[in-house]
């Protein structure tokens, strides 16, 4: 029942204000919910490039909307989209005309105009006043811009911008959610300047207001009070960068002439509405003379030209001198119906500061005569929901018991190459399945739109997730969602998601594959190849085919990394060529000494770790392939145990690529280190070849990634496995309780959810590695998703309802190759290519 409580606790959160981080649903260009007749344009070049073809990722007509003729820098051609209702737009995606490779046109830049009524058009500006948005760089990639501030509008015009005369074509998608508030404008006195000793002036103005500013009064627009960004407890701190102090708040001072102890605001709505409440996010930093309002009175009118109804709704707040947090103050509006509301907020102190105002209302009433007890319907709704949830949970538990039985047999049916770690069995886990926890949206929990599949959720693409400072702010929330998603919260449908009991997340009980991974990870934190049937209970020296090297001839150069039980050093091995004798293929070398990587077991390592280490040596010594790192020799006659493997001077592929650009005349002219496309393909072929070899021996690598591919001067690649032991790449691994680490961004869904590692999951990782190569390792896979979201995404892969997020097509990557990557990420193992197949498919590319 633990989870059940958790759900109930989450419900109120769903009944909040708009949350721009979750309001990111595609609004229907791609999937056709926006109909052709709602798409218009200033012009079209041909019938086949009309506005109805401006749909993202669609190839109808000639593949995009193109305005007529050459676009000149002074032109303002536009594509207009009517959303049929007000929407809160947070993201805008564009794409050029691909037309199966025939298209050449795309817009490098564009502007957006928007309108709430179809008459008055406004141009969008970002928070720093910039109007032009970055567009596309090629004909097929999708580029998305976060709209900050968001747009609240029904009509949007996309206006391609060019600096030179050129032809442009565009495909677009809008992302956001319905604007349920229905607020179309508010008016208020302009915010004021606050003077504090030793601070620059603190400007509490409404900097994104899109209406009229006249004589210090704002009217006819929306702005910071509806941008979804709430201010912080300390109003001097802002959530935006490069802005001034006090940016998030609109604030007014009590004792300026003309104020009569209150601030008056007027709100206009799209239609007649029946209001439940108003929420005002207000600062309460009383140490600086800021408090929430002491009381508020609101008047209503049913249509805009009517006069105010005499009866007001008044509400007094409970002032709070203890807690200085900023907060939402909820003002009940007693189900009054209105098209427009005027409220007077009375000061409780010298200053009053608001950062958000939102309204909870239902659309115009149809004169129903139900009782006036405000909370009854909500209560009934909650009860019904609870009962429904209970029924679903009971059903799922019953259903699951059945599935568990199937599961015990399932692996053999699902996975052809059966090399799995032991799963925690059903009997010692509680399976928790819940109905989908809705993204925090503005819908009340009982509302019909709550489970509305109408809007597909788009995952966060928010750059703030890349900003460590912002992330830290979110940490408490993140850790909660980690628990929730690890224990069923994120995995909605009845499925084979397995989960340990909730408490176990906080103590030492194992979490999915953790036990095995920790064990395999063994020595240096590097879980070298997991091998099927290799029982090494009594490993002896004669099992190890590698020769013993004199320890004193290893000269320490630098530490490459360390793990739980050991360290990896870069060493020079003196006299190694002679030691190994003729015919031993050694990496590049200059002179007598050779660079080697030395994995060393700590002297105090446990017996288990020692055994694993020997096991790893045994496995390694069986591997012999030009694209797999070779075990050269060992030092096992005395402690500490060492294994000596090849190391290559160019370091790892990740480092190598991330320091390079793609070859072009520019890189030649400026002597920038570069690689060519054919170099990249050559790398891909070599990795597939090495993996093909491992697969032929039924070895599962488990951590294929560019950071684990080493490179010599002739760009020969050898697959190794140091990743986890290197601090440099620690962000690539997901840490469970600070112990087990998992490269989740490279892991197949079944590895994340079920702890299954097979050659097919290596194929998945190979796809991600290819992706890294073709993005020149400039970006972490799914860099915009948090670890928890990556795990959540693997749940989407399992469910396979089209909501999973794939890595995007890297601009450098030929489409056929991207198709190959996509096949590596097939949900079903049998749909994924084999390494043999990948090798065969990649090899022809190299000689093109
Ligand atoms: C965009 O809006 C601005 C007003 O902000 C207006 O001057 C301009 O003409 C509009 N452009 C289009 C194409 O609607
Ligand atoms: C708001 O105040 C800031 C800082 O004083 C100023 O730069 C900005 O122009 C003001 N914005 C408006 C719209 O008045
Ligand atoms: C507003 O809605 C509530 C319930 O949602 C209802 O009881 C009330 O009668 C409605 N008010 C009007 C004026 O229709």
Give an overview of the whole structure.
The chain is α+β, with helices and mostly antiparallel strands and 848 residues long. The chain folds into 3 domains: 25-178, Jelly Rolls; 183-363, Jelly Rolls; 477-845, Transferase(Phosphotransferase) domain 1 (Transferase(Phosphotransferase), domain 1, Orthogonal Bundle), CATH 1.10.510. Helix content is 22%, strand content 24%. Strands 1, 2, 3, 4, 5, 6, 7, 8 and 20 form a 9-stranded antiparallel sheet that branches. Helix 9 packs antiparallel against helix 11, helix 9 (677-696) runs antiparallel to helix 14 (835-846) and helix 11 runs antiparallel to helix 13 (815-824). Residues 274, 335, 337, 362, 365, 368, 370, 372, 377 line the site of one 2-acetamido-2-deoxy-beta-D-glucopyranose.
Bound ligands, each once: 2-acetamido-2-deoxy-beta-D-glucopyranose
Mean pLDDT metric = 76
Low-confidence runs? 1-16, 366-374, 404-539, 723-727
The CATH homologous superfamily of the largest domain corresponds to Transferase(Phosphotransferase) domain 1
What proportion of the residues form beta strands (DSSP E)? Answer: 15-25%
| Shape, principal axes of CA atoms | elongated
Number of domains: 3
- CATH T-level topology of the largest domain: Transferase(Phosphotransferase), domain 1
What's the level 1 CATH class of the largest domain? Mainly Alpha
CATH architecture of the largest domain: Orthogonal Bundle
Number of strands: 32
- N-end to C-end Cα span: 61 Å
Q: What count of helical segments does DSSP give?
A: 14
Helix proportion: 10-25%
The helix/strand class is alpha+beta
Radius of gyration based on Cα positions: 31 Å
Sheet with the most strands, sense and barrel status: 9 strands, antiparallel
Protein name: receptor protein-tyrosine kinase
Transmembrane segments: 378-399
Keywords: ATP-binding, Cell membrane, Disulfide bond, Glycoprotein, Kinase, Membrane, Nucleotide-binding, Phosphoprotein, Receptor, Signal, Transferase, Transmembrane, Transmembrane helix, Tyrosine-protein kinase
Catalytic activity: L-tyrosyl-[protein] + ATP = O-phospho-L-tyrosyl-[protein] + ADP + H(+)
